[in-house]
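User: Predict the full complex structure for these chains.
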Amino acid sequence: MKRFSVFSLARNAFSHHEDWPRQWRSPEPKPEYDVVIIGGGGHGLATAFYLAKEHGITNVAVLEKGWIGGGNTGRNTTIVRSNYLFDESAHLYEKSLQLFEKLSQELNYNVMMSQRGVMNLAHNLHDVRESRRRVYANKLNGVDAEWLEPEEVKAFCPIIDISPDARYPVMGATLQKRAGVARHDAVAWGFARGADARGVDIIQNCEVTGLRIEKGRIVGVETTKGFIGAKKVGSVAAGHTSVICNMAGFRVPLTSHPLQALVSEPIKPVHPCVVMSNAVHVYVSQSDKGELVIGAGIDAYNSYAQRGSFHIIEGQMGALRELFPIFSRLRMMRSWGGIVDTAPDASAIISKTPVENFFINCGWGTGGFKATPGSGWVFAWTLAKGEPHPLNAAFSLDRFTSGALVDEHGAAGVAH
Amino acid sequence: MAKPASPGKVAPGFPPGRASTKELDTRAMDLRFSPLEAVSHRLVAASAADHASVAELPFTTQIGLRGDASKAAFANAVKSAVGVAPPKEACTVAVKGDNRILWLGPDEWLVVAPDDPDGALLARLEKALAKVSAAAVDLTGNRSVIELSGPSARAVLEKGCRHDLHPKTFPVGRVVGTLMAHTQFFLEKTSDNPETFRLYVRSSFARHMAEWLMDAMAEFTGRV
Amino acid sequence: MLLIPCPYCGERPEIEFSYGGEAHIARPQNPASLSDTQWAEFLFMRGNQKGAFRERWIHTHGCRRWFNMLRDTTSHEIYAVYKIGAPKPPAPGEKPAAAKKPATRARKGASK
Amino acid sequence: MTGSMRLPGGGRIDRSRPLKFTFNGKGYTGYEGDTLASALIANGVHLIARSMKYHRPRGLMTAGSDEPNGMVQLATGARTEPNIKATQIPLYDGLEASSVNVFPSVETDIGAVNGLLSPFMTAGFYYKTFMPSQLFWDKVAEPIIRKAAGFGKAPTEPDPDVYDHKHVHCDLMVVGAGPAGLSAARAAAATGARVILADEQAEFGGSLLTLHREIDGKPSAEWVGSVVSELSGHDEVTLLRRTTVTGLYDQNYLVALEQKIDDLTPSSPANPRMRVWHIRAKEVILATGSHERPLVFADNDRPGTMLASAALTYMNRYGALPCNKPVVVTNNDWAYETARTFKAHGAEVTVVDTRKTVPEDLGTEMAHLGIEVLADSTVTGVSGKHRVKGVSVAAKNADGSGIAGVSHSIDADGLIVSGGYSAAVHLFCHVGGKLSFDDARVSFMPATGRKALACVGGTAAEFGIAAAIDGGAAAGAKAAQAAGFKPGRAGKGVQVADDRADGNVEAAWLLPSGTAPNRSKAKFFVDYQNDTGAADIALAVREGFDSVEHMKRYTLTGFGTDQGKLGNINGLAILAELTGRTIQETGTTTFRPPYTPVTFGALAGRDAGDMLDPIRVTNIHDWHVAHGAEFENVGQWKRPWYYPIDGETMHQAVARECRAARTAVTALDASTLGKIDVTGKDAGVFLDRVYTNMMSTLKVGSVRYGLMLHEDGMVYDDGTVTRLAENRFLVTTTTGGAASVFQHLEDYLQTEWPDLDVYLTSVTEQWATVTVSGPKARMLLERITDMNLDPADFQFMTFREGKVAGLPARVFRISFTGELSYEISVVWHHGKALWEAVMDAGHDFGITPYGTETMHVLRAEKGFIIVGQETDGTLTPYDLGMGWIVSKKKEDFIGKRSLTRPDTVREDRKQLVGLLPEDPGFVVPEGAQLVNNSVKLKDVPHFAPPGLDGAPIYGRKASPVPMLGHVTSSYWSDALGRSFALGLVKGGQARTGDIVYAPLDDRTIAMRIVDPVFYDKEGARRDG
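Assistant: Here is the predicted structure of the four-chain assembly.
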């Protein structure tokens, strides 16, 4: 792998940028791999990267039915944070945040990690109570968190309206200063380049059409490029996980929904941080390109169409304008939808399955991007050892049988 | 009709010490305070008959009715008490004199009648339905009835109501449950000339709806 | 904003409705007799089909009736709506189910 | 160069109405009917903006919504708006506009230094650098990038304007009022169908506003006029001008933005600034026309470079001459009309035609007009920094891959380009429509579509006017028929003179030149706004970003405010060439709503301030306001929180209210509780199935408290059940849970147990409820009722019907405070009278109104839970110490099975306990976590995740400080004279007497686990 740096950039400028190699190869599939990963999104690519880097397992293929990073990786609002309520979630997301903090260096790829701080607003007494609860829990888990009074909210983000007679008055906020945003595409591409350099085959336009299971054990996958043998298979197919698992003959506790987002036209910097409001389902930051990046609430119905209903967007605009009165004359430039797979407890599933050597990593719902490196790291471990790592042990499928859910609904609301 | 009471002004109340029951009884009628009473003067000010007018029809009797319309016993019982059987056709209204029955669902109706402080109609219905699988529930307080009328009434509603209100699809005698201003309500078309609608709005939402309507009417009445 | 043909009221905008998720997941007759795994199957496991999908909706702000809908989750095309207890209409390309007497309960029950 | 470029006559402007405006502080004059763009051109102003990355000087490329360059900051102060396309601003008197992304001025811009760095600033350069040091990125690089990015500026004040929405239905929605759209609307309207016709322009006519043709022997303007007047005559037709259909959604739902008034006219509810139309159409016809493409060659962005169709529009429609000496570069016949028109206005015109041969008749005509035509030629460069000065032209070599011989330069002050037309298929794609590339028309076309959706005219890559009109008419008639109307007789086809339906386009994208783009000093722009060049696309392909979506994301092609309307097709054609694929194989990126940007304020509409979300109030609300209550938002309700008097703090007010409840008498407005009437002979059976405890055994006249669970066994809601009659119960729910509980009950009733004879009716607002509570409650009530209040007769947990204050009332003896309490319900509109009667009658007893805060304290002293405060969806009744309310007799109820799952029977689950701070004066913050050892938050180490060996790190524990649970409620108790709390603690029910700690930032609070009932454990006070 050719190292990227300001020097390589300068050197290549003199050769008219004609010597840059492909950032990842485009190989034909081999007949068999030690591990086949279904899904070339951020999580799948991170899994491959850490399999190679941490476990020395390099005979790995990542199969992507379209183009890598084309699903939710390229459709989210790029928020990275770890201030989850319950221990299990906080530990996993904090692992991920710590990986994010060094990811540009680790990948030699600038993922534009920007720790500008994430505020979660509280609008009523119930929010205040639950927010404080989360701050205390975060702190005891060694995760940075602060509680801000309304004036402190205003100081941190001066464009927020904190007038007490607003329909949704700002009664305070939690703040995680280490949280922020990262460039979503770069995360996928950086992991792809890093995995490829370590020998992983990234195979695009290769759709999995079936799973070959013999005596309860997976032996490979049928694809649009033919059969590919595999000692182990990990599905990281996000919204399409149910489709893959239905091929394997079992159901999973997931439903796939549209989640919409939009950006404004690019404007000069005006919004310094990330603001989230679960009560009104708005989260907004400003990208390095100048666009306000705004997420909406989830559409209620099941869908694989990558689009949702317009009233969801319209509804959030009212709330957005109340919180940020100066945004009223800015304009929505582009909107889009992703397919999020949500589990009943709003937590992920990183688990063994009823099929031997077949593992799944899914259920990230509305909050998968921030977990990308952590998810890949623990799933690589799980694939390598055949058992969950302590960080993802609580996120196994069997929790739905035992009842040991990690229910982040109550305190996290929409968990972006 | 109750006295209008403005916020902050306490209506004439009860003297300390015990009042006689009879005295209290006679007062009860006077002390009704409809959901829009406090804003009734503003409704008047916001209305312009040539364009759009809005007013509350306070204390309109409303009775929730549940039962199986395909059973003759039920339909007959209702008819004997109200004067008309509950309509079977979806989203329609059956009218007899001052009484009307609005279809709300396949087994649910709203009986609407003039102010009936003694509850005579409800008593009649309950008696008639005593032997039938049915429910009749007084809902007079549950919703405020708002009348919106005028040549621009439909345009006012179109600012928030997603139902097709064209006279061809929503003629007189139709009723739908729908949403406007984030508020559930029943919308009934009662007249074509001028176009007149009744909005049955939950009492706690009535002021919100009234504010919304007054704001929506401004484009047509010019009264901001 | 889907346009949902309520089987009672006709076509109405999506905002009048609430979603009830996958249809035809009947509550077990006798939960106590089920193993934890079987109970989890009922509680949580879903088909989440891509393509033709049977789902539950309630016309919350209209007639307040629950009903079933057959909709394509890739195109949002609505193929059919049917009342609780009515036989399943076939999905495009699917053979109509043999006429069976509708069960009387459990999300297949006859509507009142 | 400035100076008047206004043509002496012609155009659709009103020369009798001059309008003054300023651009970058300088005053100009235009006319009614101008856009800002046409007025600037008429004033000879070309340099309008700077590009995103290199800050290249830029001028107007187009005359419409596809404009990538000509963005301005419009107006000032609270009404300022960034990034508005000058081509879309109808001129008005007093308009002020300025260039965006420039410092200090558009002429001299410091950011232009980026142009010098451009060899380093290739596509995605930032991914490759700045990362050795995160600190450098955080502190230096990112702030610079952020500051450099973005165009205009957000306002700094709230928006003073008012926006509106409108919801309509129609049989046919026609998008675009050009020849095809007008014709379609006319055909459908004639049948009586409800038709809506919308166009983004201020005037209907579309391309006919620019193209002067004879239709059936009449000038096209007359044809437009007659169709519009015919349409205006139909009652069922709605004509929307300045209305852009921005999105097409499932089941023919369209969203359109209407600009009602200009930016200087103050708006009001009576006159909103913009209106968002929501349109549900049975049939949709897209007549959105087509977009002309530029060509890609060296420095194809010099100000003065413009599309041929735009130049024609400025001349024909606005009477403004873009330049005096244009070079027209084309790959088709259509651009010759622009050349011809320039010539007619006295310009000196040269045509560079990239095609091998020029059609003979055109060649002859041009020769006759004195226009030099260079066929089989290409452009190799453009000079002039702030304005085109010269255009270098060369002949193509034999196979068209490069140039033959040397370039020669032509003096010019304008460069007019045409690469052919692309169908405007954006809306078609919003709902998943698929496209196919037509090699003959050199355009994408709608392929597989949706039901009840047709594309006509330019949208279907049908570029002739006659074809558009005839096709529109046929589609309009067909749509009306599909919507249930009888179409009239089909008219005969129209005759259009000089209707060049076929432009003889020869595909051309990146024009051949002497140097490869990446080796050239010049830039070959594809996406103007983002400064994406052909070299960037080549680099993307080289680095493996060779799928169209990767190329787009890596190079930012199509991410500008024109959303790729102008440049996308060139980008993907160049990508196709580089990867050896066809354009069809390469495919497009997905067009997504909105078609053009939509103001957030307009989307929000009238959902502003208190109308954002309904405020629900009780019948007694005005009294609370008049008596100085502070309010709490509980869901949508405004509930009195506390009633401060004489400047009391909340703490003082609540203590006073609590004291009154324990010593005298108090009143609470409890009208907000959800109420459901449950009637039917199976009502008891039904309630048995939905509550954990037995309800069917309740006696008529009695009340029982109940818990509802979800099927997962977790507490969902609580409330009381009263048996009003044999077959009638009244259920109460929490204030916030009313709607969801009602729906939950209907779900089970309708879909699981339809055989039950039960009817549910929500009666929340049928009843206003006043709770009178306190030792003197009976004395108070005796003054206003004749009911027998003797506690032996009217017992706890029973109810009575009778009269209170002369009002028909239901009186319930239930208590959430622990004191003697009467919950009195009257019909909603009697609520105020009842409240006032209670306040009057209680005057002598010191009656005190209290709010939710006091209610919370009083119930917590009694250990009563609040669903949503003590619970969070993860607690069973057993966890709450409420096993007593779970029936052992019932075989089944909702959630029962889940209570015996392995996790729900664990003994170390979090359980509800009482907590007494060792420091009785300290009120622990709610939400504080509880731990086993004394620790301060500031001493907690940063979390260290377990590593590759999988070994836990903090001894055997996962967390640095393992948590036991948290404080759910915490108050000062006036009655106890100390602080107290409720909380959840792992295995807490077996730990009574233990000390746990609540770590705060710099201290830790020791708390003793106690029974959760703090006050009147025996329940002696409830009878007074």
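The radius of gyration of chain A is 21 Å.
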